[in-house]
Predict the structure.
Amino acid sequence: MVNCMKLLGNSSWGISPLQKHQLYRCCILPIALYGFQPWFYNKMPLSYHMKLLNKMQRRAAIWILGAFKTSPSKGIEVLAGIIPIKFHLQKLANHSLIWLFKLPENHIINSLMNDSPHHSDSPNPHTIGYLTNRQRNITKGHIIDSKIKSYGISPSFSPLH
């Protein structure tokens, strides 16, 4: 898709750099990052996916600015107003973590994240509470990573405190 965007213009004709930036942020990034949770979590090696996404973002930044292909990646990202892809993914992961706390109490994901399954009405044998500490440490996945990161987050916010 980034390669096809070149049909919309270059540095001398076509849409403006502001429109190119907006097109990239609104159309390309959501498609490229759709479903990032299965591979973007704490214990997963990210090198292959990040290499592809950085390459895509570099091409987009060069297209937005009309810069030379030999320009440094970080510099053209800054000039194009694009945040690094790793930080964008971290932002999306934090938003999805907050989303978990908005789920209703009877949601299946909440039943899987229950730390004390022995005290619940209908115990689920697949809950995190049934895992030993060793199993929790070696288990990879977005749900486990979300549970680890959620210890500092409170599900209710009070505007008075």
About this structure: The chain has seven helices and no strands.
